[in-house]
Amino acid sequence: MSEDERVAGRTDADEAGTDGGTAGLLDGDAAELVSGTRFGQFASVGVVGALFDVTTSTALKELGVFPELAVFIGIEVAVVVMFLLNDSWTFSGQGHDGLLATLRRLARSNLVRLGGIAVQLATFGFVYRVIALELTVATIDGWFVLSKVTGIGVAMFVNYVAESLFTWRVHAE
């Protein structure tokens, strides 16, 4: 892949629409967003982030930290981990190299993810506090974990679109 293609984040396969069959049918922004390859990478990174998020949140909650605070800290740990993975893999062809450019993208990622964080916190709060079922698994509050995973799932789509458009600007050539 040439340097221009790497910077633009495109390959001949992308142009031909062979990354999942949809890119060739759409133009510009829409084709970039529905890239099967990119979404698969984003989702894979999301699984890693979810593991960090749920593990951190659950450990903190089990140590006595207020549930919503534990959830927020877990989210931020996951945001940083996912940013680093997405920046070096999913969106590696987007943006400029260098520490300052990377720090700008990290700051923008945190700002962009505020919507996803709000969605995740609201979903978690609704499931955990309003539906509020009892579920204990091996002495761990299983309902907390299930509520957390539900919030992550709902927020994932908000985050994918926002990160694609605003953090890595996949539509910009």
Automatic annotation (TrEMBL):
Recorded hits in InterPro entries, A to Z, give: GtrA_CellWall_Glycosyl, GtrA_DPMS_TM
UniProt KW keywords: Membrane, Transmembrane, Transmembrane helix
Any idea where the GtrA/DPMS transmembrane domain is? 41-168
Q: Where in the cell is it found?
A: Membrane
**What membrane topology does this protein have?**
Multi-pass membrane protein
List where this protein forms a coiled coil: none
Protein name, please? GtrA family protein
